[in-house]
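=== Per-residue structure ===
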Amino acid sequence: MIPRHQRVIVSVLLVASLVMGVVLWQLRDRAHQRLMAGEDSAPTRAPEVAPAEQATLLVASDADNTLFPQVRLLPLPSDPGARARAVLGKLLEIYSTPDALHPAPGGTNAVTQVFLLPATGEKDPQHPDAQLAVVNLSGAFVATHPSGLETETLTVLSICGTLHANLPRVAQVRFLVDGAQHSTLAGHADLTRTYLTAEAVPTEGSHP
């Protein structure tokens, strides 16, 4: 025979369990309705894709130690720094292909960032808005770049020329490697100096 007070306790617990079950079901249902309402009200946005534009790349050729312009249609962001990184990424992607005229491994990941700053030194009255581009190269690209004065110089000047061809305000270029100053590209080309983009503008029949 179950004592009366135990029957009362069991009855109370049973009723409490039923009430809690109903409350939890209602809360779950309301949460589900809010979630569905949020999904319905949130607009579906396609990822933004930069429009394709013409970009001029100053491509190096080891055969005759020259730079030559090559026009490509590329998706270019509106932000100047991102735009600069996009064109340099394409340039270095060309160098990483098996039939490259100027082989250099690394591809689009060789340049991690490009910062645009006011040009240093005495201002040119004809170009008061001239800019300095700081190109941050990846350590992996520098570690695997072929060594040699000519091949390293061609890489540096092709980067400078490509920047100026697509962002004409860029008059100077400096290089970092993984965010820090580095002495040379692969033992020869000086990465501690400031390069002038005018040095990389090719003229017919000329060598950089």
